[in-house]
Design brief:
about 15% strand, about 250 residues, Rossmann fold, globular
Amino acid sequence: MGDRLKGRVVVITGAARGIGRAMAEACIGEGAAVTIADVLGDLAKETAQALNQSGQAIGVKTDVTRWESVQAMATATLERFGRIDVLINNAAMLSGVPRTSFEEISEADWDKMMAINVKGSWLCCRATVPQMRSQRYGKIVNISSDTVLSGVPGLLHYVSSKGALVAFTRSLSRELGPGGITVNAVAPGFTETPAAMEHGAEASERNIRDRALKRRQVPEDLVGTIVFLASADSDFMTGQLLTVNGGYVLH
């Protein structure tokens, strides 16, 4: 337990399980109040209840591809906590996505990938930035992927969407900087979550073999970087991509 995020309100999308849940737990442990926003609404509420400490967490069903849903989530956060200091755009489409050649990706799958991974981040920023601007302070953290740096084949729509988030981060940091809002991105390596492990144990083993640090990556490996970017320690840092992958891709 610490107090690096004491008094801050953090919104995390896709936080009902996996990496997002680990981020939520870490932020609460550092004193933040957290909105766990997830399309899995019941699980989001269960996670909030499990992590709750003195009313520090709420779970809100949120479809990041729909403006009305995202706007309702931001409103619920403000009604409960009164402010929004940090937005972590973590919601992403990975579960159930098979590796396939780019010719075999359907238009529907391409559009759904872009809607969740890119449009969703844009809508969440639209919903939360007005409050950050009124505070003259805020932090946005976009979760990209080190597949952008390594050019993993067979997942062109996923890699392209995560690459778009890097460009999104750089451009938005210029727009929001005058308002005292920072925008940064994190590129995790292959992290062992149920969704990632659908791609097989060999994917994890391959990453371990090629990493500088010879062990598996777990969600908890990311939380130190997330807390840093959400805290005052990173107040003069914006538009940057931090790679957290044990040295799989050196960036």
